[in-house]
């Protein structure tokens, strides 16, 4: 058969391994269930197109194993389900029915929603298992295995996921190696296709100096960004921008813009034991203030010091991440990242989001390029990332990509120069993807006085009420030294007004401005 032959003759060993594993899952399913008891959910997308040909090859190998294959299996006996929607792209519908005619698919077209359609179908047909083109990273893939019973509240059937562990790169390597047809939208810059209302070409494939021409989907460099084209189309009646330009965050409420907050989590016993002075947290605070963000909290969490305590320290990280991710717009976490027994940060983040750790093949390949044969596949814990919520942010200046799990940014820096490089790269990547709101930076002025705390306490409290938009704080560099009053905010005029108001409450020479 042409699919099996194409894969076995190619030089891509990883693709061959993926193909062998996927067809094995198909053959296992066909050994467990009769042809009448299985079905294939086809939607015309790239993943289900791969699955179609994996099923054709798997069925061929299954029959060959029974010594009943004649080498000319033109018909595809597995029942095919297509959920037709008025919101689907015309190109998807055309490709689906053309494919059905080409490969002799027994296609059942269902116009109901997925759940209702399955309930009706399973009442009518003796279907016990359904092949799905789900991959790790898909929103519906969280918690699934290659064989997973349907979720509570759904009609009972076995979900069979032969390509669950395939990456974006694997999908396109298969389609191009086997030279099979796929939906024409993928050659127009679409990388992940939903409905006509929530899908646009991926702006990362936009050809320079052109607002409406895109490179084909298989040229997307980072497969983690395949869903970057899932964005609402602008209304044509308002003369909006080209759809690709609306990817990501482009506008926010002005009040929200003035109070975006971040939390910082440091993971490391060496900080809590006083062995190492944490310099990364203060650096991040300064950098965040420079882009107008307020730091809500900076905390330090234990990591593992003995294998017996590892689980409790994963829980400690998970609890802190869960607490901060709901309170802040962005959370930065550093420390505890790596293959050592004490590196519990990524496991803690996964637990905070209620997902499991799963092998990330793109990250594993990246690590193998850096550390060579020391990277040992599934045994390499560094390649295990939170399932379904992880994005890898690559930059030419970084040896290891930044890891983003929803609103949590994982930093691998161990010193300020490394952090400075990662911060600059993160700012550049976030700005280019319209995922970062750059606000008015914080500005500050300090004044010093020899007045006692008692003398200044009540007037300062009143001043805070008069200027609620400013942060007004006090500190001393030495217990019996001068008191420093610090004013921070985003409006220098307001700060100067507050300082003048403070002067009026005391003798003219009571306060001196500091440089």
TrEMBL record:
Region of interest (Disordered), ranges: 230-252
Domain of life, source organism: Eukaryota
Reaction catalysed by this enzyme: FMN + ATP + H(+) = FAD + diphosphate
SMART domains per the UniProt record, alphabetical: MoCF_biosynth
Pathway: Cofactor biosynthesis; FAD biosynthesis; FAD from FMN: step 1/1
Record flagged with keyword Nucleotide-binding: yes
Coiled-coil intervals, chain numbering: none
E.C. numbers: 2.7.7.2
Keywords: ATP-binding, FAD, Flavoprotein, FMN, Nucleotide-binding, Nucleotidyltransferase, Transferase
Entry-linked Pfam families: MoCF_biosynth (PF00994), PAPS_reduct (PF01507)
Domain MoaB/Mog: start-end pairs: 263-433
Swiss-Prot/TrEMBL GO biological process terms: FAD biosynthetic process
InterPro entries in UniProt: MoaB/Mog-like_dom_sf, MoaB/Mog_dom, PAPS_reduct_dom, Rossmann-like_a/b/a_fold
Molecular functions per Gene Ontology: ATP binding; FMN adenylyltransferase activity
Main EC class the enzyme belongs to: transferase
Name the record gives this protein: FAD synthase
């Amino acid at each position: 058969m042409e699919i099996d032959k194409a894969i076995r003759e190619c030089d891509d060993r990883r693709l061959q391994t993926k193909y062998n594993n996927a067809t094995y899952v198909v053959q296992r399913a066909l050994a467990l269930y009769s042809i009448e008891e299985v079905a294939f959910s086809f939607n015309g997308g790239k993943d289900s197109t791969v699955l179609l040909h994996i099923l054709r090859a798997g069925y061929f190998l299954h029959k060959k194993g029974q010594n009943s294959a004649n080498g000319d299996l033109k018909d595809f006996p597995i029942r095919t389900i297509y959920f037709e929607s008025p919101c689907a792209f015309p190109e998807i519908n055309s490709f689906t029915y053309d494919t059905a005619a080409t490969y002799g698919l027994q296609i059942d077209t269902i116009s109901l929603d997925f759940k209702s359609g399955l309930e009706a179908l399973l009442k009518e047909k003796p279907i016990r298992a359904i092949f799905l083109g789900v991959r790790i990273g898909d929103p519906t893939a969280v918690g699934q295995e290659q064989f997973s019973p349907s979720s509570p509240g759904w009609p009972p059937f076995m979900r069979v996921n032969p390509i669950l562990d395939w990456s974006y790169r694997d999908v396109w390597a298969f389609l191009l190696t086997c030279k099979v047809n796929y939906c024409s939208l993928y050659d127009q810059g679409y990388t992940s296709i939903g409905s006509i209302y929530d899908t646009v070409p991926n702006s990362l494939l936009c050809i320079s100096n052109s607002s409406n021409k895109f490179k084909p989907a298989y040229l997307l460099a980072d497969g983690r960004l395949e869903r970057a084209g899932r964005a609402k189309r602008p209304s044509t009646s308002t003369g909006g921008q080209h759809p690709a330009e609306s990817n990501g965050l482009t506008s926010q409420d002005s009040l929200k813009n003035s109070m975006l907050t971040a939390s910082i989590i440091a993971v490391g016993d060496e900080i809590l034991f006083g062995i190492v002075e944490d310099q990364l947290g203060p650096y991040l605070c300064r950098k965040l203030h420079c882009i107008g963000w307020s730091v809500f909290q900076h905390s330090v969490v234990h990591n593992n010091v003995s294998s017996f305590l590892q689980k409790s320290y994963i829980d400690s990280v998970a609890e802190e991440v869960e607490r901060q991710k709901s309170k802040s717009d962005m959370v930065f976490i550093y420390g505890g990242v790596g293959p050592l027994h004490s590196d519990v940060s990524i496991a803690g983040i996964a637990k905070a989001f209620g997902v499991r750790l799963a092998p990330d093949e793109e990250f594993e390949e990246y690590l193998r390029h850096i550390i060579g044969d020391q990277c040992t596949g599934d045994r390499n814990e560094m390649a295990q990332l939170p399932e379904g919520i992880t994005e890898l942010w690559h930059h030419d200046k970084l040896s290891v990509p930044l890891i983003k799990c929803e609103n949590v940014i994982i930093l691998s820096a161990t010193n300020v120069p490394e952090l400075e490089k990662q911060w600059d790269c993160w700012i550049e990547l976030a700005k280019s993807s319209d995922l970062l709101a750059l606000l008015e930076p914080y500005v500050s002025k300090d004044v010093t006085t020899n007045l006692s705390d008692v003398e200044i306490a009540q007037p300062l409290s009143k001043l805070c009420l008069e200027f609620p938009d400013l942060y007004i704080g006090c500190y001393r560099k030495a217990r019996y030294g001068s008191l420093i009053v610090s004013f921070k905010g985003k409006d220098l005029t307001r700060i100067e007004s507050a300082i003048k108001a403070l002067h009026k409450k005391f003798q003219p020479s009571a306060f001196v401005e500091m440089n």
